[in-house]
Design brief:
3-stranded mixed beta sheet; 36% helix; 9-stranded mixed beta sheet; alpha/beta; 8 helices
Length: 286
């Protein structure tokens, strides 16, 4: 019997060296049985985290013509999923995708910052534009630095109380999205990924063990597992649990081999985990 394949338009960059963005998103969603249709925002020789002066081609002039082609084909997507945008001009192009596919699940990973500081590519104009995308998203997946920036708070948030976590989640949801997931939160001696779903007014947290190493692309991997899980019908806490567990497995596996952190997580050794893995229920209510 023919089974309909879920289709995701992934509006992200493509880095040749270093596992991040589309090179991570494509295999993670594919192994979950979801067809990925890349809409590259830029092509880079390597990601910008430690490989020196990278070669980059801005593809702003590609995004809207690609959308126009899909319109002529009357091509359907089950989800529009955006991430790194190379310039403020790409915000409106990305917004056009969301508006045309208004019935599709709209996921925004607002890639702007980490570790308390904005990326070099994140201009004030791009930050404002990312806020406009958040307003029309169904799901957003910022890290704690990006969450603070979206709320106009100090990007450096070394620790949050339970009350602050709930405040961040609710205030972000009030901007527009039905579901908010914040990664990389530290609270009361624990590292957490936290989430909120407005429809049920429920707060969730999934704790994880922190490894003393930083790898590019982990945010892309988390958001992709989460998106795939929700598209397949999982609840928010189950999807958060699956994404957290996968990241912890991949990071611990990579750390054990002492590889160059610039190369990202050893994705190829861990993708099998996403095939037929059991439902995980290690989540807690926040």
């Amino acid at each position: 019997m023919y089974q309909k394949s879920l289709k995701v338009a992934a509006i992200h960059d493509l880095s040749g060296v270093g596992r991040c963005s589309l090179s991570v998103i494509l295999p993670i969603l594919s192994v979950q049985g979801i067809q990925v249709c890349p809409v590259p925002t830029a092509i880079l020789s390597a990601h910008t985290g430690g490989f020196g002066e990278v070669v980059m081609r801005d593809l702003t002039d590609y995004i809207t013509p690609a959308l126009e082609h899909y319109k002529r084909l009357d091509y359907k997507f089950d989800c529009i999923y955006s991430g790194f945008l190379a310039s403020k001009d790409q915000v409106d192009h990305c917004k056009s995708f969301f508006e045309h596919y208004s019935d599709s699940l709209k996921v925004v990973d607002p890639v702007m910052a980490d570790h308390g500081k904005p990326y070099k590519t994140c201009t004030p104009e791009l930050r404002q534009g990312m806020g406009r995308l958040v307003e029309i998203a169904d799901i957003i997946t910022p890290n704690v630095t990006e969450a603070a920036m979206l709320l106009g708070e100090n990007p450096y948030q070394p620790e949050l109380t339970s009350r602050q976590m709930k405040s961040f989640l609710v205030r972000l949801s009030e901007l527009g999205p039905e579901i908010v997931v914040i990664t990389g939160v530290y609270s009361d001696g624990c590292y957490l990924n936290i989430g909120f779903e407005r429809e049920h007014s429920k707060f969730w947290k999934v704790p994880y063990n922190m490894i003393n190493a930083s790898y590019p692309g982990t945010g892309d991997a988390f958001a992709s597992v989460l998106t795939g899980s929700i598209l397949r019908g999982d609840s928010l806490p189950i999807a958060m649990n699956r994404a957290t567990a996968f990241l912890e497995l991949a990071i611990k596996t990579t750390y054990s081999y002492s590889t160059d952190t610039r190369d990202g997580i050893m994705l190829e050794s861990c993708l099998h985990y996403l095939i037929g893995n059991p439902t995980l229920c290690d989540y807690e209510q926040l």
